[in-house]
């Protein structure tokens, strides 16, 4: 069933609408995990978000005129240029205890290594460009503590190329490709919503994957160290100002190193 937003909601920026919806869905952990209907609602909102809505100029559309009366759109002189991303860059939009919002920007050829999302739900929207996705789900999840993680995993996406515009995707703790790797076919950007976000108690783990010729559709995954030459830069969010619930705001967020 389509969601009809009242006029006062439609007057908000798309990023504000996304934040407000996430705050409603994710800010009450006692209510349990989000329902499928709530996830579909968030996907619908994500589907409407475009590059300019998060303050990035992908060069595909004319920059908004400086005389524009649209106060919800970022001004052309405040947009990050997609051409300026020479390495993987994270644009932090918001993080609290319940969820995070941000954009990963990739130059062509850059790879985000295979990693997991422990006990997390992740919604992603490819904003521009093309990306190759490799993803897995554990057949039986390894223990969360102790020895280095390893085990049998089912292939969800085998070097699947996704091209913008496309629908927002979602992964769950045990389905949908909870472990994934991205390689940018062209310059691209991915808007992510994570719930709950990564933390010291919930870190990301990186893996190597070895196909099993005798067992098509499966691979053996083994925890590995992050490559020494891998790094993620940080960039400021230059989209429309976000009004947040200060009770949920995480002022201890540590941005990625430049």
UniProtKB/TrEMBL annotation:
The lineage of its organism: Eukaryota, Viridiplantae, Streptophyta, Embryophyta, Tracheophyta. Keywords: Iron, Metal-binding, Oxidoreductase. One of its GO terms (molecular function) is cysteine dioxygenase activity. Signal peptide: none annotated. Its cofactor is Fe(2+). Its EC number is 1.13.11.20. Pfam families: PCO_ADO (PF07847). It catalyses: L-cysteine + O2 = 3-sulfino-L-alanine + H(+). GO terms for biological process: detection of hypoxia. Gene3D superfamilies: Jelly Rolls. This is cysteine dioxygenase. It comes from the Eukaryota.
């Amino acid at each position: 069933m389509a969601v009809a937003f009242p006029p006062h909601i439609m007057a908000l920026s798309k990023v504000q609408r996304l934040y407000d919806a996430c705050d409603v869905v994710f800010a009450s952990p006692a209510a349990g995990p989000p329902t499928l209907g709530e996830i579909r609602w968030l996907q619908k909102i994500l589907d409407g978000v475009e590059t300019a809505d998060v303050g990035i100029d992908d060069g595909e559309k004319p920059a908004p005129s400086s005389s524009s009366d649209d106060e919800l759109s970022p001004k052309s002189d405040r947009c990050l240029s997609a051409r300026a991303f020479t390495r993987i860059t994270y644009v932090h939009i918001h993080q609290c205890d319940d969820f995070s919002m941000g954009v990963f920007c990739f130059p062509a050829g850059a790879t985000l290594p295979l990693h997991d999302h422990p006990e997390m739900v992740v919604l992603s929207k490819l904003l521009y460009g093309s990306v190759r996705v490799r993803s897995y789900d554990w057949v039986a999840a390894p223990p969360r503590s102790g020895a280095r993680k390893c085990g049998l995993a089912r292939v969800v996406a085998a070097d699947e190329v996704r091209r913008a515009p496309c629908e927002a995707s979602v992964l769950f703790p045990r389905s949908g490709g909870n472990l994934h790797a991205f390689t940018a076919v062209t310059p691209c950007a991915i808007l992510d919503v994570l719930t709950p976000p990564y933390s010291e108690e919930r870190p990301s783990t990186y893996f190597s994957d070895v196909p099993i010729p005798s067992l098509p559709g499966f691979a053996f995954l083994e925890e590995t160290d992050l490559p020494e030459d891998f790094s993620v830069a940080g960039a400021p969010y230059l989209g429309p100002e976000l009004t947040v619930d200060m009770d949920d705001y995480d002022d201890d967020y540590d941005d990625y190193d430049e």
